[in-house]
Amino acid sequence: MLAIPHRPVLLHQALEGLSLRPDGVYLDATFGRGGHARAILARLGPSGRLLLNDRDPEAVAAARAEFGEDPRVSIRHGNFASIAEWPALAEGLDGALFDLGVSSPQLEDPGRGFSFLLDGPLDMRMDPHQGETAADFLARASEAEIARVLRDYGEEPRARRIARAIIAARQQAPILRTRQLAELIERLGGPRTAGRHPATRSFQALRIQVNGELEALSQALNAVIDRLRPGGRLVTIAFHSLEDRICKRAIGGTRPRPNTVPGRRLPPAPTPEPMLRPVGRPQRPDAEEIERNPRARSAVMRIGERIR
Ligand SMILES: C[S@@+](CC[C@H](N)C(=O)[O-])C[C@H]1O[C@@H](n2cnc3c(N)ncnc32)[C@H](O)[C@@H]1O
Fold it and tell me: Which of 51, 124, 246, 283 is deepest in the core (most CB within 10 A)?
């Protein structure tokens, strides 16, 4: 395991957003390397509790090494999509934090396959023991499916062109390496938007697909909102518009409710009662934080408070 540090984003704002009580019960659903967790724990008293979760076994190993002996801490390895199964949540939560996306140790370890700048296996799984890799997906998916993923999850305007090039390339040789894919996209040319590398959107899209990120987030937010005690706080930090949209919808108060029964037309579903009240406006890192930590630049933090 490489010892790459992770700088927590919007740290003070997130702590304030959680409105911490020394004897409260808090969940950090995305431990990473514990930047937020460490600061939360420093503010809890002896009867406070902190529940730590991550789907990445390396993150969980780091959590166990640092906090495994602390009687206030419980640690879970798993996708937050199934967080409702964790008995530790049963007594309710005073606050929950979701600091989404990937950590610096994930991004900067070439062996994890998240970076288009570093050559490594085209993997991108946050839990390397679960599901298919990005290379597996590109080997089996149809051109239309690849194009849909690039368009829907990467908002990539050249989705069809890139998908066509991937299909042509894989007929010559399997696409197994990060740089192999990045160079294939670079060779297609096209504009670099706002200094972004041309493979940025495609890599984001594949990461979201491989990890089922959007479905997991919707499920987790629903489960956690149910567990929040009245006055409990939900704090989300999102790094792209698709995940921020899900957070905004959850914190905006209402939750999506399906209104379909196969073969039957139903009147529109009644709007569900709001569960959360948004607290303040969405917050972004200031220029000084972005200067110190360029990875913070696209972060948007939202805070919601459970109202009933
Ligand atoms: C941005 S990092 C969190 C950094 C952390 N707040 C810190 O300061 O060190 C995001 C973490 O969330 C984890 N993660 C992302 N999606 C997840 C999911 N569906 N279930 C569990 N963990 C997830 C990733 O493995 C990663 O470690």
Answer: 124
Mind listing the pLDDT tens digit for each residue in 11-64?
Answer: 999 999 999 999 999 999 999 999 999 999 999 999 999 999 999 999 999 999
Residues in the chain: 308
pLDDT, tens digit (0-9, with 9 covering 90-100), for 151-206: 999 999 999 999 999 999 999 999 999 999 999 999 997 666 666 889 999 999 99
pLDDT (0 to 100) of residue 3: 76
User: Does some domain include residue 82?
Assistant: yes
Q: Strand order in 228-238's β-sheet?
A: 73-77, 49-54, 25-28, 93-99, 228-238, 300-306, 276-278
Please tell me the residue having the least CA distance from ligand 1 atom 25. Answer: 56
DSSP H or E run through 151: helix 143-154
Looking at the fold, whether 172 and 199 belong to one and the same domain comes out as yes
Name the residue with higher pLDDT: 226 or 196: 226
Q: How far is it, in rounded angstroms, from Cα 63 to Cα 41?
A: 12
CATH number assigned to the domain comprising residue 90: 3.40.50.150
- Count of C-beta atoms within a 10 Å radius of residue 198: 20
Which among 297, 265, 284, 299 has a CA at the least distance from the CA of 100? 299
6 within ligand 1 shell (Cβ under 6 A): yes
- Cβ neighbours, 10 Å, residue 17: 24
202 and 285 together in one domain: no
Percent of the chain whose predicted confidence (pLDDT) is above 70: 91
DSSP 24: -
For residue 83, report the distance from its CA to the centre of ligand 1, in Å: 13
- CATH code of residue 179: 1.10.150.170
Expressed as residue numbers, the domain containing 151 is 112-211
Residue pair 96/228 in contact (Cβ under 8 Å)? The answer is: yes
Counting from 1 in the atom list of ligand 1, the atom nearest the Cα of 81 is 19
Which ligand 1 atom minimizes the distance to the CA of 31? 5
Give the number of domains in the chain. 2
